[in-house]
Each structure stands twice: as structure tokens, then as C-alpha cells.
Automatic annotation (TrEMBL):
GO terms of molecular function: catalase activity; heme binding; metal ion binding
Record carries keyword Heme: yes
InterPro entries on file: Catalase, Catalase_AS, Catalase_clade2, Catalase_clade2_helical, Catalase_core, Catalase_haem_BS, Catalase_immune_responsive, Catalase_large_C
Primary role: Decomposes hydrogen peroxide into water and oxygen; serves to protect cells from the toxic effects of hydrogen peroxide.
Biological process annotations from GO: hydrogen peroxide catabolic process; response to oxidative stress
Cofactor: heme
Sequence positions that bind heme: 73, 113, 162, 359, 363, 370
Similarity annotation: Belongs to the catalase family. HPII subfamily.
Residue span(s) of domain Catalase core: 29-417
Organism: Metabacillus sediminilitoris
Pfam families: Catalase, Catalase-rel, Catalase_C
EC number(s) from the headed UniProt entry: 1.11.1.6
Descriptive protein name: Catalase
Length: 684
């Protein structure tokens, strides 16, 4: 990469280009460049004789294969990433001197990795878990990493407890069960005995922990950081990513089924959206608190188990990120990318949040093991797009060839270069916060209210969201074997809501709480997903058609849906083309066998005369399942016979019509945009 060229949104792509190798059409060689003549038979003494050590190609090929795996991340092992760009809407000069937040005409390349936390690299993606949302901005001043989650608070207040938290949530060590799940004794034992987790647990058991798509979840920097402007004035800041499509989730039963039907559901969704040009977009927001107001709130701004209610501290939307390019190679990019909350640029600084401070140690430490040495910054995906020079040398896998005699500072032989530069020339100067205190191992009193915001979260939920939380507690605690742990959790969450604790206590056969209750009446409407944006865009509809379907009518519906931005996939009992009575043909994308109702946002039973009894049963099963997951259901013509009309006909989100197809398409499109119809009565 020519480091002297001006930086733009393509800078990272251009830099990566010099590392890309296209093997197609090339001759096979060894890693030494020697052309290979035989790649199927190892060198042997006679056709049935012993293999010879002398076969260097065999040895090299096998050795490389034997070393292909690297340690997976201790947390966030299962992840998927994409490239994109970020643009700021207006200059943020008033608050920060960070260059990438100054000029709306500048686009900064980004790389974003989404992840689950607890599961191994091969685990299913729709499990109940926090999602990682880590963004690397390749700025002209160096890489800035915003290493966040889709939940704005954390389980613990001090990083020293992180190994304990993770040991508790990971599969239990004696039998390595369960994979990628928090529904087991050690996790809940940790929760009950580390009650600072209360607030985050409420989020974890809410619909936030089962997102519909990476494209439909928020991201949060979690910690309070500092923005510092040119004059040295600082503001406390919390970072938010707001998905343009709104925040939407799966239903728990659906999430579990998808985990089996398509363990790659979220990566497939992201990959296909980007391949199809439906680029995921997120707006960047900041909440700002002036330093003078540090103590004006009923929470401590340094406490990572607290959020700043958006109604009290509004989120100022300052820019947009668009993910527009899939990776070329998952290992080289997604697996080898190294994030670190300590990768900052001038104008962005830290606070004394004890969780953040501990993270500043952990990330480099883990990369050293995972990426095998101190040179991981040289891996193509991790390289800044601006020049970098220092006196660090050598180490495993060093690629840079530093020319010259001098590798120390201060020196005279190289005129004391590379030289530190002043703040005015872009040198990073740490914010000069005044700090005083004794060395103690304790926690501030201001960190000790663990339940008020958990109660606020509960108060902010709509009825269906509350039901989901009760069901989630009943599920999770229902899997816990220890009666004592179950009871401890009931008693703990009585401090959030007696209604909640009583409901799940009854479901798991524990004693309803004897005391508890919260005085908190505050709620924050921004926390409820019911208040999110509802758009049809990118929603996926499974269209079930049989032979002799009403060709033009059905096509018109499909086209009207597509015009709304909805994705249409055709399901039938066999692949190939399905024929309409008027000769129209529609390509079938899936059979009942190769897909499942849970993989769609809505089902449209379009009809078809020539269908077997088996077809009808399969279609009915798809519709029934979608119905039980509160999804929009449309039925026209013979499709009406595949659903239980007497049960479903007047249900919210069920659209039945065989006269006016444009009215049908419009109503069905609206039903799809609503995401889910929670006010639907289910037949139990
Ligand atoms: Fe962490 C990875 C987010 C607390 C230690 N963390 C990791 C990733 C994300 C987060 C998104 C995946 C990055 C990637 O995609 O490669 N972590 C968070 C957030 C936290 C948090 C938002 C709380 C606010 N983490 C946290 C603590 C510690 C760690 C308190 C340890 C003191 N996290 C790690 C790690 C990981 C990691 C062990 C594993 C792989 C990696 O760093 O690169 O260092």
C-alpha cells in the first residue's frame, strides 16, 4: 500500500489487495515455488511399499495441515464479520478532535465482527446470549476499535471477576455440558452470588438475547469513555449503534429450532444481505455528559452495570455505518482480526471504569496466545491504513523488513527518529485527569445499587416482553438442578419485581418470594422493542405453491412484495419449476424438506390445485408453526384450505383474500412489517 496516498473508504480494500492471491488457473507448487507433478500419491518404495521420508511435498502439505488450527477466542469464539464504511453527519469538533469525526465528506473504512459470547467456534448462532458488536475504524490517525455488545450494560463491575463469570457460563468442566447456553447450575449460581449481575441478567433473559438478525440489533460501547476536543475539554460519552431496520428478535421456541435447522442462520443472513446489495446500516449515536455533571445522576457514570436512560440523556445521532463487502477469507480476516478497547485515536480517551481498565490489559494478552506472538498487527486485516513506525523488532512471524542500523530511542545516528511528536502534530496525549486516593481493594458505595435499573428495565417492558422474560426465567431456572440455586435466584429477583419472581418461582416449583419488591416506578420507553422502527425491508417470505397455482395473480403478489423490499422465496414439494394453470412457471427455491417455517419472517400460502394430501399436511405444518411464532400469514385461493381457517381467520396478522390481489399484497406487506403479532391468541 502506498501510505502517502490520501485515505478514503477504499484505503483498506486497496491495502488488502496486495495480499490477495488468486489460485484459480495457476500451477500447483510447493511453498518454495517448486512446481509439483503429483498430488495424489505419496512417494513409495514400490507401489505397495513403504512411504519415503524423502517426499518433501507430502511432508510440507501434511505439516501445514497439522498446524492449521489456532486457539479459538476464550469468549466470542463464534463470530462473523464484514467490511464497510463510516461517515459522520456533521463535525463533532465541539466535543472531540478525532479526525474521523470531523468531516462529513470523509468515509472511513471499517471492519465489523459480530459474535456470540459463550459458544465455541462451531456452535449454533441463535442461542440465548449476548452478541458482540466490535468495530474497527481504519482512520488516518490509526485504528480505533469500538469493542461493544448488543446489550448496554455488563454482568460485573470489575474486570478481576471476568474469569469467574466466564467459567460460570461456559460448559461445566466435569462434563462439558451445555454448549452455548446459560441455562445451567454454575451460571445461575454465579448470578445469585454476584448480584451486580441483576441488571444485565434482565437484558439477557429479554428478547435482546435472541436477535432476529445482526442487522436488527443495537450495539453499545457499554463503558463510559471520554471525548476530548482541541481545547482539551472533555465530555463523558456512551456510544450507540442504532440499526436502520429497527431492533427485532426471534421467539425462543423459534430460536431453538433454528439452532438445529440452520446453525449458521445469522452469518447466512448477513452474508446473503451483503451479496444481494441489501447493505446493513447502523447509525452512530452518542450520549454526552459534561464533566461538571459527573455526580448529577442517581447512578455512577463509571459503573458498567448502569445505562444512561435515553429520556434523561438523549442519544445524538452523529453518523452512519454501512456494511457493503463480505470477506474474501474467513480465517484470514474474521478469525485473525484483533480488537482491543485500548486502540484509540486522539480525541477519544478512557475513564476509571474498573471493568474497562481491566479490559485494557486482557485483549493484547489474549491475542499474543491466539495469534502466536507480538506481530499480529502486521496481519493484513489488522494493519492500520496510515503509516506506522517504531523501534519494536523481531518476534515470531515478523514480516516488516525494517531497514537501517538503529532500533532504539533516543539516538543520534538516525537523527533521533522515529520521533515522538507533540499533541499539535497529532501525538496522543492522555487526558490529564486529576486522581487522588489510597491503594485499596474495594468498591465505591455508588456502585452498590444493583436493582434500581433492573427494575426500571422491567417497568419499561410491554406485556408480551414481560411474558417472554418470565418464560425465559422459567426455562433457564427450569434447567437448573440445584433447588438451592433456584431459590436464591427467585429471592434475588424479588428485588426487581415480586410479580416476576413469583411467576417463575411457581413455574419451577420453588417457593414464591417471602419479601422483596422495588420502589422504582421509573421506566424508559426507549428500552422496549415494541417502540422500535417497523419496516418491511429485507423481510423474508416463504411462498408455498403447488401445481396449477393462479399464475398471474400469485406473481403480482410476489412482485408487489418485492417492490416493498420484501424477499420472496418459493417453497414446494419438489425443486425445479412449478407450473401455474396458465402456463406461468416459478422457480422453486426450497422443498418442505430443505427449509423450515422458522427460517422465514412470514408464510404465504399461495395455492395450487394439483397438490397431494402430503403436500397439504406439510403446508399446514409450516403455517401452524409460523402462526405459533406470531408471524404474518397470508393465504389466497386453495392456500386457504391449508390453514385452520376457523382458528386463524380473524387473528391479527393473518391476511386471507382471493378477490383483490393488490389489496391482499398491501395488507400482507403491512402485516409483515409489524414483525410479530403478539396480540394473537394461540391455541395451546
Ligand atoms: Fe471482551 C473479546 C466485548 C468485557 C476480555 N469482548 C470480546 C469481543 C467483544 C467483547 C465484542 C470479541 C471481539 C472480536 O470479535 O474479536 N467484552 C466486551 C464488552 C465487555 C467485555 C462489551 C464489557 C463491557 N472482555 C470483557 C472483560 C474482559 C474481556 C471484562 C477481561 C478482563 N473479550 C476479552 C478477551 C477477548 C474478548 C478475552 C476474547 C478474544 C479477544 O478478546 O480478542 O480478551
Amino acid at each position: 500500500m502506498n501510505n502517502k496516498g490520501k485515505m478514503n473508504e477504499n484505503s483498506k480494500n486497496e491495502q488488502l489487495e496486495q495480499f490477495r492471491v488468486r489460485d484459480e488457473g495457476e500451477k500447483l507448487t510447493t511453498n518454495q515455488g517448486l512446481k509439483v507433478s503429483e498430488d495424489e500419491f505419496s512417494l513409495k518404495a514400490g507401489e505397495r511399499g513403504p512411504t519415503l521420508m524423502e517426499d518433501f511435498h507430502f511432508r510440507e502439505k501434511m505439516t501445514h495441515f497439522d498446524h492449521e488450527r489456532i486457539p479459538e477466542r476464550i469468549v466470542h469464539a463464534r463470530g462473523f464479520a464484514a467490511h464497510g464504511e463510516f461517515e459522520v453527519y456533521e463535525s463533532m469538533k465541539k466535543y472531540t478532535k478525532a479526525k474521523f469525526l470531523q468531516d462529513p465528506s470523509v468515509k472511513t473504512p471499517v471492519f465489523v465482527r459480530f459474535s456470540t459470547v459463550a459458544g465455541s467456534r462451531g456452535s449454533a448462532e441463535t442461542v440465548r446470549d449476548v452478541r458482540g458488536f466490535a468495530t474497527k475504524f481504519y482512520t488516518e490517525e490509526g485504528n480505533y476499535d469500538l469493542v461493544g455488545n448488543n446489550i448496554p450494560v455488563f454482568f460485573i463491575q470489575d474486570a478481576i471477576k471476568f474469569p469467574d463469570l466466564i467459567h460460570a457460563v461456559k460448559p461445566e468442566p466435569h462434563n462439558e455440558i451445555p454448549q452455548a447456553a446459560s441455562a445451567h447450575d454454575t451460571f445461575w449460581d454465579f448470578v445469585a452470588n454476584n448480584q451486580e449481575s441483576a441488571h444485565m441478567v434482565m437484558w439477557h433473559l429479554s428478547d435482546r438475547a435472541i436477535p432476529r438478525s445482526f442487522r436488527m440489533m443495537e450495539g453499545f460501547g457499554v463503558h463510559t469513555f471520554r471525548l476530548v476536543n482541541e481545547e482539551g475539554k472533555a465530555h463523558f460519552v456512551k456510544f450507540h449503534w442504532k440499526p436502520v431496520l429497527g431492533v427485532h428478535s426471534l421467539v425462543w421456541d423459534e430460536a431453538q429450532k433454528i439452532a438445529g435447522k440452520d446453525p449458521d442462520f445469522h452469518r447466512r443472513d448477513l452474508w446473503e444481505s451483503i451479496e444481494g446489495g441489501l447493505f446493513p446500516e447502523y447509525e452512530l449515536g452518542v450520549q454526552l455528559i459534561a464533566e461538571e455533571d459527573e455526580f448529577s445522576f442517581d447512578f455512577d457514570v463509571l459503573d458498567p452495570t448502569k445505562l444512561w436512560p435515553e429520556e434523561d440523556v438523549p442519544v445524538k445521532i452523529i453518523g452512519k455505518m454501512t456494511l457493503n463487502r463480505n470477506v474474501d477469507n474467513v480465517f484470514a480476516e474474521t478469525e485473525q482480526v484483533a480488537f482491543h478497547p485500548g486502540h484509540v485515536v486522539p480525541g477519544i480517551d478512557f475513564t476509571n471504569d474498573p471493568l474497562l481498565q481491566g479490559r485494557l490489559f486482557s485483549y493484547t494478552d489474549t491475542q499474543l496466545l491466539r495469534l502466536g506472538g507480538p506481530n499480529f498487527h502486521e496481519l493484513p486485516i489488522n494493519r492500520p491504513v496510515c503509516p506506522f513506525h517504531n523501534n519494536q523488532r523481531d518476534g515470531f512471524g515478523r514480516q516488516t523488513i525494517n531497514v537501517g542500523q538503529v532500533s532504539y530511542h533516543k539516538n543520534s545516528l538516525a537523527s533521533n527518529t522515529p520521533a515522538p511528536v507533540s499533541e499539535d502534530e497529532g501525538g496522543y496525549v492522555h487526558y490529564q485527569e486529576k486522581v487522588e486516593g489510597r491503594k485499596v481493594q474495594s468498591r465505591s458505595e455508588s456502585f452498590k445499587d444493583h436493582f434500581s435499573q433492573a427494575a426500571m428495565f422491567w417497568n419499561s417492558m410491554s406485556e408480551p416482553e414481560k411474558e417472554h422474560i418470565i418464560d425465559a426465567f422459567s426455562f433457564e431456572l427450569g434447567k437448573v438442578k440445584s433447588k438451592s440455586v433456584q431459590q436464591q435466584v427467585v429471592d434475588m429477583f424479588a428485588n426487581v419485581s415480586v410479580e416476576l419472581a413469583t411467576a417463575f418461582a411457581l413455574a419451577i416449583g420453588a417457593m414464591p418470594p417471602q419479601k422483596g419488591g422495588s420502589q422504582v416506578t421509573k421506566s424508559s420507553p426507549a428500552l422496549s422493542q415494541l417502540n422500535t422502527k417497523k419496516l418491511p425491508n429485507t423481510r423474508k417470505v416463504g411462498v408455498i405453491i403447488g401445481t396449477d397455482f393462479k399464475g398471474e395473480d400469485v406473481l403480482n403478489v410476489c412482485n408487489a412484495l418485492i417492490a416493498e423490499g420484501i424477499q420472496v422465496e418459493v417453497i414446494s414439494d419438489k425443486l425445479g419449476n412449478q407450473k401455474a394453470f396458465d402456463g406461468t412457471e416459478l422457480k422453486v427455491d426450497h422443498t418442505f424438506l430443505t427449509c423450515d417455517s422458522v427460517l422465514f419472517d412470514a408464510i404465504y400460502a399461495a395455492g395450487g390445485k394439483g397438490v397431494s394430501q402430503k403436500f397439504k399436511e406439510e403446508a399446514a405444518y409450516f403455517i401452524q408453526e409460523a402462526f405459533s411464532h406470531y408471524k404474518a400469514i397470508g393465504a389466497t385461493f386453495e392456500g386457504k384450505n391449508w390453514l385452520q381457517e376457523e382458528v386463524m381467520a380473524n387473528s391479527p396478522g393473518v391476511v386471507i383474500e382471493d378477490q383483490d390481489m393488490s389489496v391482499f399484497a398491501q395488507n400482507f406487506g403491512q402485516a409483515i412489517s409489524a414483525h410479530r403479532h403478539w396480540n394473537r391468541q394461540l391455541v395451546k
